[in-house]
Write a structure and sequence with these properties.
It is built from two helices and three strands. It is mainly alpha-helical. It is globular and about 40 Å long. The mean pLDDT is 80.
Length: 86
């Protein structure tokens, strides 16, 4: 997707750094709360719609015009998530 839509990959560093920080500072193997979850081959923090977080605004506002060009309807971000694969 990044190449197809000419997205600067550096914009993705904020979400990547965020999820890797959360992964490194959690005990995903022994998680007991809803913030830590292991996937089949990685880690997915269970957070509420992170694309709306202020630190990810640059990514969000880069994606909006691309989505507007692609979809011919009104839309909004309803769910978003990040996964870090091992």
């Amino acid at each position: 997707m990044i190449r197809e839509f000419n997205i600067d990959p550096w914009i993705c560093m904020a979400p990547l750094g965020l999820v890797e920080f959360m992964k490194a500072n959690s005990d995903a193997e022994n998680a007991t709360d809803h913030f830590d979850v292991t996937t089949q081959s990685g880690y997915q923090p269970m957070v509420d719609n992170p694309i709306e977080w202020p630190q990810l605004a640059q990514l969000k506002y880069t994606l909006i015009p691309i989505i507007n060009e692609t979809l011919d309807c009104e839309w909004k971000f309803h769910r978003s998530w990040f996964v870090s694969y091992n």
